[in-house]
Write the structure tokens for this entry.
Amino acid sequence: MAERQPHTKTPATDRELQAARERFVSLWGQMGSSWGIPRTMAEVHALLFIVGRPMNTDELMAGLGISRGNASMTLRSLTEWGIVSRTRQRGDRKEYFEAEQDVWKLFRTILRERKKREVDPLLEALHSCRDAVRPKEGRKIGPEAGEAEEMVARIDQMLEFMHMIEAISRRFIGPDGEGLETAARLLGRAS
């Protein structure tokens, strides 16, 4: 009887690696678009993340088929978000960029930025809306007073909910970020 040879996986070819990299970039771009993030921004981040090494603007332009202006604006935005950082390579005058490789830190940073750009302005607007209809001293109470009180009560309910969500999110997206990883692991075990 012939001896069985253990099955060994052959390493992926350059073509297979390139196809997988392109698929990842495409998927990340689609996901980003559905989250309201510009597709190019998501794709540049995806390429930097999946390659796992610093790349310069020319490499990113060639890899994604984008213009220098688009690449520059996108890299500036990603750097401002804190998920891409600038770096230099010894002996090269070009500027290089690298993506955060720790996925927990990456998602905490993204959540923190989304909260700052979307939730915080919403909370401020809700407070302003409530304050605009809240009865003020010296104002005559008319027939609309009851309607205004009901509106203030509904807005207060919404604010209470939003503040509770904000408090929970602070535990998840804080600098140490232990809350997000812990919650994800606990929920993963519960299912």
The CA atoms of residues 22 and 118 lie 30 Å apart. Helices lie at 14-34, 39-51, 57-64, 68-81, 103-133, 145-173, 178-190.
